[in-house]
Amino acid sequence: FKQKTAYEIPLRLVGSEMCIRDSVDSTPIFFKSGNGSKMIDIDDNEYIDCVGSWGPLIFGHAENQTVEAIVNCSKNGTTFGAPTELETKMASKIIEMVPSIEKVRMVSSGTEATMSAIRLARGYTRKDLIIKFSGNYHGHFDSFLIKAGSGAMTLGKPDSQGVTENIAKDTLVAEFNDIDSVVELFNENKNKIAAVIIEPIAGNMGLVIPEKNFLNDLRAICTENNSLLIFDEVMSGFRVSKGGAQELYDVIPDITTLGKIIGGGLPAGAYGGKSEIMDHVAPDGPVYQAGTLSGNPLAMTAGLSVLERLNDDVYSKLEDISSKIHEGLQINIEKTGINANVARVGSMMTLFFSDSDRVKNYTEAKKCNTTHYSQYFKSMLELGIYLPPSQYECLFLSNKIDENDIDCLLYTSDAADDSLRVDLGGRRI
Ligand code: PMP
Predict the structure, then answer these.
(1) Got the DSSP string for 18-29?
(2) What DSSP assignment string belongs to 368-389?
(3) pLDDT digits (tens, 9 = 90+) for 381-401
């Protein structure tokens, strides 16, 4: 790899990059800066960034307005441990944008949002069990690390050590896009299921799109059984449309969890829903949840600076960029005859090295040719194109990706001795 500077393993065990060794047989790259669609590593190599910090950077790196807003805000103090007007402004913005949310609570990460949502669902329904879907990832809270996607999937250790059997037994697992698997769990556990939590557009086993009626059917089953439907829109929120997947598919969950874009690149998350349910959160209600830096002024400022600019033009530009990449990859797949397909919703997309036409659940996702993905990832990296370092993640494109970036990503050459040619296109940036 291009990066020369070596770090010891213990130093490398940082954040989400730790799985890169196992998923694509590589060494994590350390980055020092970013601007627009580009990132620079510590050896000054430049890359086109197709990961966008796993979702938050819808306007790209070091985006002027957001940076300026953060700098200005920090001059007035960075945290007060008390309410601010910014937090209220953010709450109003979320309520305006996300169809199902009437009241909302800020937290500092996606994990905090989902774990709090589950506690709330249990407190509200006075039931214990939850249903999740295999290959869905909802953060690193114990209850979710059962057949989880994302890093847990690429590491091949879906059940993390440290999660006790007692906790694991309260999490039931259904198959994504298989409503019968959900019905069966409800039938076997009458009046015991507090909530069904789902990534309505699954992004953590690669991008898996919900089939027609799947989310509607889930909605109906939850209502019938007095269980709550939780949409984990940490990835899809503000990404696939202003109102997230619930707006796109017109299905209203009881609770929604948000993260990533909501913080504009700083740590933030939120969970919200119907007032009647949210009123159960302390101090109004008996379900405890709190956080020292929740609603942090800098995070709220950064997030607001992004949310306030999300309009139809932004989404149509993202669609234009993403559809060009999608179509280009499709053409390259056909040219080479490689068994692969592209799944995409808006600016989220995965290139699956799969024999099946469409990956629709965890079982199929697991059959992908991860060796081939790893080769593709590495050859693109050599060219200066930074893709998700795992078959089981998504590209999150920013509106700063330009025509030249797209050309680099898709370029193919017929010259047999072109050492830069890789199976599915790409040229040096
Ligand atoms: N839910 C989903 C759908 C996610 O994709 C993630 C993170 N990728 C999380 C929850 C957890 O968010 P965080 O990493 O901010 O804790």
Answers:
(1) GGHHHHSS-PPP
(2) S-HHHHHHHHHHHHHTTEE--S
(3) 999 999 999 999 999 999 999
Pocket of ligand 1 (CB under 6 A): 54, 109-111, 114, 137-139, 150, 199, 203-204, 232, 234-235, 259
Residue 424 has pLDDT above 70, yes or no: yes
Ligand 1 atom at minimum distance from 114 CA: 10
CA 242 to chain centre: 15
Condensed to tens digits (0 to 9), the pLDDT of residues 248-267 reads: 999 999 999 999 999 999 99
Residue 355 neighbours by CB distance under 10 Å: 12
Contact 274, 124 (CB under 8 A): no
- Is 137 annotated in the active site? yes
Q: What is the DSSP letter of 364?
A: H
Q: Where are the alpha helices (DSSP H) in 98-190?
A: 110-125, 151-154, 165-168, 179-188
**From the alpha carbon of 112, which atom of ligand 1 is closest?**
16
Q: How far is the CA of 77 from the centre of ligand 1 (A)?
A: 28
pTM: 0.93
What ranges in 146-178 are assigned the alpha helix state H?
Answer: 151-154, 165-168
Give yes or no for residue 115 having a pLDDT over 70. yes
Catalytic residue among 47, 124, 137, 373, which? 137
H-run or E-run covering 362: helix 362-365
Residue among 137, 145, 394 whose CB has most ligand 1 atoms within 8 A, to mutate? 137
Catalytic residue (one of 260, 271, 315, 386): 260
